[in-house]
Amino acid sequence: MGEFELIRRFFRQAQAEHSATGVLLGIGDDAALLDLPADQQLAVSVDTLVSGVHFPAKANAEDVAQRALRVNLSDLAAMGAEPLWFTLALTLPEVDEDWLRDFSRGLFAAAQQYGCTLVGGDTTTGPLSITLQVMGSVTRGQALRRDGAGVGDYILVTHYLGDGAAGLAAVEGRLSLAPPHDDYLRQRFYRPEPRLAEAQHIRALASAAIDISDGLAADLGHICAASDLAAQVYVEDLPLSPALLELGDIDQARRWALSGGDDYELCFTVPESHMAEVGLLIARGELRATVVGHMVTGVGVQCLLQGETFELDQTGYHHFQS
Ligand code: ADP
Ligand code: MG
């Protein structure tokens, strides 16, 4: 199968032909032609996944594709942008039709779920690697940046933290839980949910935002650095899932929540003046988020448990880490 046949079968045909927002010209010409309304700005983010580095070489192609697009869309959510289009640069060692079919199925299932259209790409031969570039729109001047946090702002996170790291441990066989928790954690790893709806709820209320890919402590650290402030995190308030609590090791669960990574939840800051509105969204069930700390003057992220410093880089024995 040649390059063009491959593109036609797995990437052009696989996508339901529909008049996607702003796509004047999609796959098939030298470049895509895309239209953005005049009051909107383009948010662009790109990520490369290398086989054997970012995912195991034997990983299920459908899972790889799902995770790749979801993780990219999480970056758009963190900017308060809504997904529109994406491109795919695929490097393949060989034409493996089974792999391509699975990859394509996972990719377009996620694309359809989140309303993002494939508008072009590149296909080359070499060691397996996947580059996705996502593009989204955000109303001019309304993007959620990392540098907007103020002193006294509340720090919130969406849903639960720590599931991503526990999910990775489950996937790698370092952790076993009874159903349904085991399945829940694996799903949390392979199908992270970009918090796009949550981002739209908080866009006019939050002062800064980031998505949590490397653990709350590290990613909140980026908000601190960009905003020239420090953060205090109340460890007892971290939202932990029933699956994580089922481990019976609250210390490990908290460490995963703070520094485990792979959660793709949003961390955002809200000025006191907007907290009543955020509280209302939470009370109405329209936003699942928890206050976990405050922005203060200074440098870095300080984690506190019952008022005492909670050291993160202690190298003690942890039950579930290999
Ligand atoms: P060019 O030589 O002009 O770069 P290509 O032969 O690389 O064009 O690609 C032909 C068309 O197919 C282009 O519209 C390109 O965007 C699209 N395309 C190539 N690879 C992919 C892919 N993996 N997924 C989606 N579209 C692709
Ligand atoms: Mg090309």
Short description:
This protein has 322 residues and is α+β, with helices and mostly antiparallel strands.
Describe this structure in words.
- With about 325 residues, the protein is α+β, with helices and mostly antiparallel strands.
- Helices cover about 35% and strands about 25% of the residues.
- The chain has ten helices and 13 strands.
- It has a seven-stranded mixed sheet. It has a four-stranded mixed sheet with strand order 3-6-4-5. A two-stranded antiparallel sheet has the order 1-2.
- α2 (about 60-80) runs parallel beside α6 (about 195-200).
- The longest helix has 18 residues, at about 60-80.
- The chain starts with a helix and ends in a 13-residue tail after the last strand.
- The structure holds adenosine-5'-diphosphate and magnesium ion (MG).
Question: Could you give the topology of this structure?
Answer:
Blueprint: H1 3-12, E1 23-25, E2 33-34, E3 40-50, H2 61-78, E4 82-92, H3 97-114, E5 117-125, E6 129-139, E7 154-158, H4 163-171, H5 181-190, H6 196-202, E8 208-211, H7 216-227, E9 230-234, H8 242-245, H9 250-259, E10 266-270, H10 272-283, E11 289-296, E12 300-305, E13 308-309
Parallel strand pairs: 4-5, 9-12
Antiparallel strand pairs: 1-2, 3-6, 4-6, 7-10, 7-11, 8-10, 9-11, 12-13
Helix pairs in contact: 2-3, 2-6, 4-5
The structure holds adenosine-5'-diphosphate and magnesium ion.
Adenosine-5'-diphosphate binds at residues 7, 11, 27-30, 88, 90, 118, 120-123.
